[in-house]
UniProtKB/TrEMBL annotation:
<keyword id="KW-0521">NADP</keyword>
<protein>
    <recommendedName>
        <fullName>Thioredoxin reductase</fullName>
        <ecNumber>1.8.1.9</ecNumber>
    </recommendedName>
</protein>
<dbReference type="Pfam" id="PF07992">
    <property type="entry name" value="Pyr_redox_2"/>
</dbReference>
<dbReference type="InterPro" id="IPR050097">
    <property type="entry name" value="Ferredoxin-NADP_redctase_2"/>
</dbReference>
<dbReference type="InterPro" id="IPR005982">
    <property type="entry name" value="Thioredox_Rdtase"/>
</dbReference>
<dbReference type="InterPro" id="IPR023753">
    <property type="entry name" value="FAD/NAD-binding_dom"/>
</dbReference>
<keyword id="KW-0560">Oxidoreductase</keyword>
<keyword id="KW-1015">Disulfide bond</keyword>
<comment type="subunit">
    <text>Homodimer.</text>
</comment>
<dbReference type="GO" id="GO:0004791">
    <property type="term" value="F:thioredoxin-disulfide reductase (NADPH) activity"/>
</dbReference>
<dbReference type="InterPro" id="IPR008255">
    <property type="entry name" value="Pyr_nucl-diS_OxRdtase_2_AS"/>
</dbReference>
<keyword id="KW-0285">Flavoprotein</keyword>
<keyword id="KW-0676">Redox-active center</keyword>
<keyword id="KW-0274">FAD</keyword>
<dbReference type="InterPro" id="IPR036188">
    <property type="entry name" value="FAD/NAD-bd_sf"/>
</dbReference>
<feature type="domain" description="FAD/NAD(P)-binding">
    <location>
        <begin position="5"/>
        <end position="298"/>
    </location>
</feature>
<comment type="similarity">
    <text>Belongs to the class-II pyridine nucleotide-disulfide oxidoreductase family.</text>
</comment>
Amino acid sequence: MSKVYDLIVIGAGPAGLSAALYAGRSKLSTLVLEKSKTGGQIVITHEVANYPGSVREATGPSLIGRMVEQVVEFGAEIKADNVIDVDFSGDIKIVKGEKEEYQAKAVIIATGATPRKMGCPGEAEFTGKGVSYCATCDADFFEDFEVFVIGGGDTAVEEAMYLTKFARKVTIVHRRDELRAAKSIQEKAFKNDKLEFMWDSTVEELRGDGILETAVFRNLKTGELTEFHADEEDGTFGLFAFVGYVPHSDTFKGHIEMDDWGYIKTDDEMRTNVEGVFAAGDIRPKALRQVVTATADGAIAATLAEKYMEEKF
């Protein structure tokens, strides 16, 4: 633990890698800590069609591969270690991993968030093969197909309306008998001719042969099961789940200010309430969770961290 880095970045998704790229290019001694796969959620995305410049090699792994190459080229270190505790109380921040302890003048938290799962059989099997958690990413794959949207909050209803631009029919499946979305959003939804509603229902099971072909829905009031089968000509359909996100912030509870859902609060320049600690990417409360917004957050966080260090040290 003798070395004091200029910057420690916790998390090696697009936000963390972008931060490390900017920090390394500014000649800051930078360490990136990642507990599992480098790249975060994007590495399980087969096609990335909406990230600027990702036209030819538009897969999650290829995009992340190039990001990692840049980060290493600019001198940042990437280590595999699971952060289990932190001490942000002093000028030198302490980050405790399972393998060892690290010190830095500044820290960027970029641990991300993952979509909350429905928890039904077949969900994992058909993720990326009919099941999605991102309309912006995958809507165009279901042009002129039928689509189901699971959820009844603002995000679910707004994304369902967005999907009507592509799908021939969109059905919102909600476990209650009324939507939780804001009234203004509901009014727009009820006026949309391509939107239908399945009330008091949840997804019981998903089936198919390599691709999503059947969804079983349960009516929570009657217990009745209803099977939906893909149109023979289509062969499949889309099922988009918008039942919330789970921020990966448990390690930082009690050390930094969070909102009621566990997201780390920041200002527009990625500063948290703790001096010298920044947050970037999906770990923050935000309207759009995409690679492009994550990388922007990372760039801002690293730039402001550098300014902080210039003034502090």
